[in-house]
Amino acid sequence: xxxxxxxxxxxxxxxxxxxxxxxxxxxxxxxxxxxxxxxxxxxxxxxxxxxxxxxxxxxxxxxxxxxxxxxxxxxxxxxxxxxxxxxxxxxxxxxxxxxxxxxxxxxxxxxxxxxxxxxxxxxxxxxxxxxxxxxxxxxxxxxxxxxxxxxxxxxxxxxxxxxxxxxxxxxxxxxxxxxxxxxxxxxxxxxxxxxxxxxxxxxxxxxxxxxxxxxxxxxxxxxxxxxxxxxxxxxxxxxxxxxxxxxxxxxxxxxxxxxxxxxxxxxxxxxxxxxxxxxxxxxxxxxxxxxxx
Amino acid sequence: xxxxxxxxxxxxxxxxxxxxxxxxxxxxxxxxxxxxxxxxxxxxxxxxxxxxxxxxxxxxxxxxxxxxxxxxxxxxxxxxxxxxxxxxxxxxxxxxxxxxxxxxxxxxxxxxxxxxxxxxxxxxxxxxxxxxxxxxxxxxxxxxxxxxxxxxxxxxxxxxxxxxxxxxxxxxxxxxxxxxxxxxxxxxxxxxxxxxxxxxxxxxxxxxxxxxxxxxxxxxxxxxxxxxxxxxxxxxxxxxxxxxxxxxxxxxxxxxxxxxxxxxxxxxxx
Amino acid sequence: xxxxxxxxxxxxxxxxxxxxxxxxxxxxxxxxxxxxxxxxxxxxxxxxxxxxxxxxxxxxxxxxxxxxxxxxxxxxxxxxxxxxxxxxxxxxxxxxxxxxxxxxxxxxxxxxxxxxxxxxxxxxxxxxxxxxxxxxxxxxxxxxxxxxxxxxxxxxxxxxxxxxxxxxxxxxxxxxxxxxxxxxxxxxxxxxxxxxxxxxxxxxxxxxxxxxxxxxxxxxxxxxxxxxxxxxxxxxxxxxxxxxxxxxxxxxxxxxxxxxxxxxxxxxxxxxxxxxxxxxxxxxxxxxxxxxxxxxxxxxxxxxxxxxxxxxxxxxxxxxxxxxxxxxxxxxxxxxxxxxxxxxxxxxxxxxxxxxxxxxxxxxxxxxxxxxxxxxxxxxxxxxxxxxxxxxxxxxxxxxxxxxxxxxxxxxxxxxxxxxxxx
Amino acid sequence: xxxxxxxxxxxxxxxxxxxxxxxxxxxxxxxxxxxxxxxxxxxxxxxxxxxxxxxxxxxxxxxxxxxxxxxxxxxxxxxxxxxxxxxxxxxxxxxxxxxxxxxxxxxxxxxxxxxxxxxxxxxxxxxxxxxxxxxxxxxxxxxxxxxxxxxxxxxxxxxxxxxxxxxxxxxxxxxxxxxxxxxxxxxxxxxxxxxxxxxxxxxxxxxxxxxxxxxxxxxxxxxxxxxxxxxxxxxxxxxxxxxxxxxxxxxxxxxxxxxxxxxxxxxxxxxxxxxxxxxxxxxxxxxxxxxxxxxxxxxxxxxxxxxxxxxxxxxxxxxxxxxxxxxxxxxxxxxxxxxxxxxxxxxxxxxxxxxxx
Lengths: 293, 270, 423, 357
Prior knowledge:
The complex is a heterotetramer of chains A (293), B (270), C (423) and D (357).
Chain A: H1 2-31, H2 38-51, H3 57-80, H4 88-110, E1 115-116, E2 126-129, E3 132-135, H5 136-158, H6 160-170, H7 172-177, H8 182-204, E4 210-211, H9 215-230, H10 235-255, H11 264-278
Helix pairs in contact in A: 1-5, 1-6, 1-8, 1-9, 1-10, 2-3, 2-4, 2-8, 2-9, 3-8, 5-6, 5-8, 6-8, 9-10, 10-11
Chain B: E1 8-19, E2 22-33, E3 37-41, H1 48-55, E4 63-68, E5 71-72, H2 78-83, E6 86-89, H3 101-108, H4 118-128, H5 130-134, H6 145-157, E7 163-167, H7 175-190, E8 194-199, H8 202-208, E9 211-216, E10 219-225, H9 232-248
Parallel strand pairs in B: 3-8, 3-9, 6-7, 7-8
Antiparallel strand pairs in B: 1-2, 1-4, 4-5, 9-10
Helix pairs in contact in B: 3-6
Chain D: H1 3-11, H2 13-40, H3 45-71, H4 79-93, H5 96-102, H6 108-111, H7 117-139, H8 144-164, H9 184-203, H10 205-215, H11 217-222, H12 227-253, H13 263-276, H14 281-308, H15 319-333, H16 346-356
Helix pairs in contact in D: 2-3, 2-9, 2-14, 3-9, 3-12, 3-13, 3-14, 4-7, 4-8, 4-12, 7-12, 9-10, 9-12, 10-12, 13-14, 14-15
């Protein structure tokens, strides 16, 4: 029973990271950009929730969504579009600079002291089945995660813009030579990334109610590790990678002997290295596909 | 097929392209009339593919201009060029292997200028390339080389472009498949589309085209018409002149006397 | 080609400009600094001309207290309010005539918590004539500044460091010059344990955050004193802030068994995840926390049975009128405190003033000797004591605060009988 | 340099060849280092410290560039080598007697011994190099982003172990009382040494092979270059340089804590490398110094404001925003770095001078 509870905790955390990873994976898939500033989208949404404390919840979430998408699009337009042809390392460092800028602005505006978001705190309530305790938040995370992953998959499979995104991801030059407008595709990817970041934020908020300038960074870095471990080329493998990293983080903590729990990071990163060595192109990737980066 | 009588649809004017400090195309000028088939032949590294990529704005120009229907493409990006009516069948097909045949065709339609007639265009393509219809829902990567080439051409013409650029459509294909491809091209020509064909298999291209430019070292070495396809001497001269020059690394080609050796086999077919 | 050369030129000019600007900046600093001091001494001389002779310039110069503290980074929420309170106290002291007939001057440099900037800030202040150095509220972040302060022979004070590390135990013999006005973790852990026992709790789960030595020490001290007084610690569930382990804490705690009280030694933001998680897991056990759990900015809605010890109640019900006056003054200055830690900034100034008056000079060694002899020195933060071994405050009265239904109220003033002994 | 002189220099072809091949690419970084070093002595203590920090941070960037610049693989974990170098040097040069009270749980041979300055610097290089060699043995097989993340994982493990294994690391404490031996001379010489090592490697057969394998891995393999071996050599060497830089760094600050050599430094050094130009040593040096000096300048500007007035409400902490913006602008204007990723060449050297004159 104890282990089933561990499993539930792990699934809860895994689902949250899966959402973040999907956002990172989608932008990478379409643009070949590792967006280190993805976490700052969550942060921006978090401060929006703080500032709108007292409004109706739905309105707050929509405002946060608008802010997050606006930040995502500004990021794309001002910092990344001019670097469309630059090397991956250059864009990576650019996204880091963007992340640093946004965190510095937040630090100046709201200070390093946390601010409470107060959103959907009722989701923290749990129901029990026998000895098992399941938070409504866990259910919400799994459902929302599943629905959004499904929606993104459907979008990519069924819509023209989705098809153009997949084509761009596969070969940007040829896609453009066929008439695909790169900017449309990229803007689309960033809008979706914004939606996913907001969804992740809304699900993180009840559990991590305090937003700080570093709020998103820690989450995004771990999610990024997950994305790479899972396999960057496909949104689905990136998402599974995100789930994997959250799941492993939680599971390892529960399974480590009490005195050794402080070595959680070592265990987790050790696992990451092993996975990368055994399956360099990604845990959930067909072996034939290799990362283009 | 009088060249002078028709209006020029594609004009390449003193175009230069360089990769880093290496010039790939040097002050190249050529004109293609509407409805005409123009071939560009030449040895490896002559700059043939670069010319097509430059027209598509897939590589940057260092000087010169390209005009479509009199309008400069200087400020256009490659997707805009495509949506203005030039379609490219790239070297090595470059179909999207992970996507299905149908999805590849849908991507081809992105550049269509008219909102109507898409279904008809698709039907026309199915008729011309039955193989495409047969494997509609199959990932394109599973098709054979010849099938992929047909798909690549089909993908280009569903956009109903004014000008079709083809880069080495016969590359790596078996002779019978090449016949199929050229038969398809003939049909496209009948439909009145302008074609620019880059080929290393010069003889066939020259015979097929109304006019042919022989390219070497990024400049036009010679101009030929279909009748010249049988003039092996002239071909050899054009080819080998360029080859020796490239090997010797001499300066700008001025069309000096080509060194003609005794080639073991037909230089054109290689 | 030409463009590349142009860019190189711009780059070259940029580098030169950087140097030039740095030069200009330094010139400004030097001349500005001198002009500043001369101007200050001029005004001091002018104002002091009525009661002292103009020749006693040295003794009428202001006593400079330099603060190398963080106003940008993660310590800013602690350092900022402490600095603001210190400034108010300096103003009060100056209004009352200063110390030894000299005015106090508080200068600060933001370290942004960067180690090189921290050291640079200390060097700046020392070179600028600081007589006493204040540092960031964490001994490890402050180390680069502390070392400069003590090696320059200055009394070096951290307002709110809570470990016994601020002194010889970390810095060897030169560390005699280093003190903290914060509460000793061993003392604070003891008071929490004594309060728990007094409320009839006899079993506990201890949850230390491995991130900071302070957290570890408070929880160790709680355990030691709790067991001394006959309580039983049934489990210790460690975790570490920022590594995600807090997400699993609730399950770990719920599986540890039932206890009367949970001692939780951590700080925001992870404390809110920890407390929220424990409550949401249906565990209503009272939670005890040291000062790091102070503040209402992180509190989950409707939190109950959460008790913490602190320096001052920022919830409007502090028992001391003087304290409430200081809080009001800080609100007026636009820096309302979020936790009670600010008061250590004020107390630091009071202690420095007391030491200077007793020693009759600003010599670091003399001041340190006075500090070591402080036993129950009354300050706004309560009575503070040091010893040659312990350079962090013990024996001070804590405000024991408790949250019920999301509202914190003052419970009682309580001092530990003695610091707990931890290995 | 006057125009006739330059012409004369260019006129002598053999001299120009030698200069062009080795002296000129080296001259730029060396000259810049010496200028910064010597110039620093004109300033106040705190500005001096910042300039020395700039030199030492640049040494870390040079260490990173030995691997990333030559192999084309971005390492996110190089700070772990800086870290182990820093900790080895720091903990071994803290006085043994004090160590016994502050870090009683250290293994005996670490706790009871201390080293002199030179020995501790050598130790930093050695530990950094060996650690990189061990790690590299497994990891340099990977390429692309996978390699980057794997090295980042090494960084995570290094930090976690140093933070929690009290037998070898300082735990949550900062290591205090490290002799502050890095001043003008040592900082300058240290960077020069790193530049020298990096350049020697780059010009060596190994360095050229690795660069060849970066341009075209398949062709390199075809011509008998063992990419794995070449990468491993570069990785170990750059680990040694990074470890050395870390050792110099602790002797500059006199203390070091685990979080000091983690994420922030990782991104900072990476940003410096990219801002300068990732493909060249000149880029590493220019980027390291440019970003460091910019950082100091903006920070000093902030301080300048606060020294004059004592107003607590004075808005501070805007320098980070400015740094981020400047960095972004530099990347936008020069996506390949300030130097364009090229080494300094004589032709390039001449042109700006003429333009200036």
